Amino acid sequence: MSIRKMISLHPDVHGHVNQPLGDAVHHLMYCAKMCLSCADACAAEKMDMTQCIRSCLDCADICEAACRVGLRRTGSNDDVVREVLELCARVCEACAAECEKHDHEHCRLCAQICRECAEDCRNAAASVTPVMA
């Protein structure tokens, strides 16, 4: 099962999927869930993990929103898609930087997927064709 396949089945796509955008949507789904899991694990740690929890929850929410916007193929709103992906890349980088401050395996894994997701979001944002006025 693949989200890229699902996107390709949309009547307005006609089988053509913007590969970088499909990759980003795929990573966004996983990144959101990994950030939620990391936030939950941080809440159980004995040390104060307040900022890491906040960063992970913010990242999860932004990833979810970017995923939903990136999935939509009816009509077009390329400027919004690009802006959301660029924002998401910045939020993922910030979350990764926060997670990297901690010596927990869950934080290490979260930072890794956040960095991967940020790269995919930047690539997808660059692949969305600007609207010509």
Describe the protein in words:
- The structure is a single chain.
- The protein is mostly helical.
- It has a single domain (17-126), classed as Substrate Binding Domain Of Dnak, Chain:A, Domain 2.
- The chain is 74% helix and 0% strand.
- It has helices at residues 3-8, 19-44, 50-71, 78-99, 105-127.
- Helix 2 (19-44) runs antiparallel to helix 5 (105-127).
- It holds the Pfam family Csp.
- InterPro entries: Csp_YhjQ, YHJQ-like.
- It comes from Sphingomonas sediminicola.
- Which word captures the global form? elongated
Query: What is the C-alpha radius of gyration, as a whole number of Å?
Result: 16 Å
Instruction: Report how far apart the termini are.
Output: 38 Å
Domain tally: 1
CATH first level:
Mainly Alpha
The secondary-structure element order is HHHHH
Low-pLDDT runs of 5+ residues are none
Report the CATH architecture: Up-down Bundle
User: Overall mean pLDDT score?
Assistant: 89
Major sheet size, sense and barrel closure: none
Number of strands: 0
Q: Give me the CATH fold name.
A: Substrate Binding Domain Of Dnak, Chain:A, Domain 2
Give the structural class.
mainly alpha
Q: Please report which band the strand proportion falls in: under 5%, 5-15%, 15-25%, 25-35%, 35-45% or over 45%.
A: under 5%
Number of helices: 5
